[in-house]
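Bumping with the actual sequence this time:
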Amino acid sequence: MPIKEISKARVRAEAARLKAYFESQGASDVETDIMLPAEVLLDLYGEDIRHRAYVTNDPARGEMMLRPDFTVPVVQTHMDSEADPARYTYAGEVFRKQDDMPDRAAEYIQVGYEIFDGSNPAAADAEVFAQFSHILAPLGLRAATGDIGILMAAVRGLQTTEIRRNALLRHIWRPRRFRALMNRYSSAGTELREQNFDRVRTNMANQSAPPIGLRSEAEILERVMDLSTDAAEDPISGAEIELLNDILTLKETVPNVLSALRDISVDMPAILPAVNQLRARVDALDARGVDVENLDFETSYGRTSMEYYDGFVFGFYVEGRSDLPPVATGGRYDTLTSMLGQGRSTPAVGGVMRPAMILAVQENAQ
């Protein structure tokens, strides 16, 4: 069944209603430019958004982009201010190419709610999720939750080299690449690592082969040294690989996942602080009336489209309609504030919703 199209006037009215609700909850209205400097922002967005951003060149201002979302410019606004703690809300158009999904709108309105407050991260996580859940409850949507921080903690605790840990952390948001690296660094990948190094060394020894690509000779030599060093390292133990696999495949209700993670933390204590944070969040959600006993949790949720999130992540979806975009998404992005804070950081969490989707779901339900 196709989702009905909603007039822009009705979408704007719904956006105003949602923003007014967040203002009633103590959020300050914030506005950002539609045209944003591309040079810095493209490096901060995840790969999914970077590939879908509309970028142009201004003769005076250089490379510019149409606003692909609000979170990064809102973080910039907050970090330039002296406000702390702070709550913000906003509404306006965002722009993303839809090459792979031409039926989806390339321009649509977002409404968001962001909390900058480090006094109690679990309570802030619960507040954002509970506010969204309250607004969206009449629509009967499926809620999905996860926590990128648990997987990041597991990777940081691996008994291996810093280079390998950093490579895995860098590719957490690219599941296939992450899995390939896991295999390469395992005992099963030892032979492959040695073969890769031998192949590169042979090519380097072939003086008649012309250089191809953009890397300089110094960069190529540095890469050869890295491959040589890595080929000589011991593999990540089979036990740790198995524990990583266990974490990656967890998909159950929150209480069952929490129980499983506690068991895993016995053998992988590095994840215990993240597990305790999850426990605190569950308690905070329960205190706000969220049905945590039946709340879905997936450790790998958010790994393909939420690259600047580094902790709690969530989304609300129309049940049985994988062809439709999420009605709302959000999560924690502490590291992003550090990157934009020029020496200071503030734990932060927030989310966005699509008023057009809210209205369309309501129309289809009638």
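The tokens above came from a reply further down the thread. The two ends are 13 Å apart (CA to CA).
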